[in-house]
Amino acid sequence: MSLQNNSTDLAFLEQNAASIRNAKLHIPHLDQTVNLLNYMRIADHVATTVQQPAARIMDWGCGYGQMTWLLRRRNFDMISFDIGADDTCLPPIPLCDGLNVIRTTHPTQLPFPEQAFDAVLSCGVLEHIDECSGVAGNELKSLAEIARVLRPEGKLLIYQLPQRASWQEALVRRLKLGYTHPRRYSAAEIVGILEGKGFRVSSLRRANLVPKNLTGMPTGLRRIYSRFSLPLIVLDRYLCRIPLLNRVAGVLEIVAVKRPDAA
């Protein structure tokens, strides 16, 4: 994406954030500039990772569609999927205008045929599967389903996966400042899980050593933080390249490829 296109992306997402605030909706991950820039960074990384024109990508657990929108802007054929009833109502915000979401109420099964996608995106989703379904083991069943609908050598792109040793999560838990993820992963653990479900991990890196999400923090503090959004994104990129220090970063980012011999 060109700088001009990125500016257009940010302008639209900021407009969407203003709509959220005006409607007094509680969608904190979409109303702060640093988060919006982070989603744009992820979309750009997807674009450099899936170098296939008009690749068909499922946005697994699409939520309000921010990644669907950003990746369509990068010329991918996006299919938005989420859990819920077919008549689930989306909020009246620009991101959701025209967003067509395929839904199912089953906690793990996907309503798609085998080898339907070139890639599947999980952005802040995998870690919530067992938590939200209330059934231990659904995470593994979901990964098996993703492998089923991916073509051989198709890619599973995982972002915002909570790292077990995250300093931020440890601090929030210790001081009881707000929500923390019940499910967190070490690099070795998630690699082992993915390999056991028919994937090979081709890339693993860390991000969010500098916090991106200040959910629960006072509104004034969040607004001040947002004024420095771009420098914070750049700083985080460099800090997360430092060995050992990056072991306490907030999240893991993984590219896993479906093995040709996977069922």
UniProtKB/TrEMBL annotation:
Keywords: Methyltransferase, Transferase. One of its GO terms (molecular function) is methyltransferase activity. Signal peptide: none annotated. One of its GO terms (biological process) is methylation. Pfam families: Methyltransf_23. This is SAM-dependent methyltransferase. It comes from Duganella violaceipulchra.
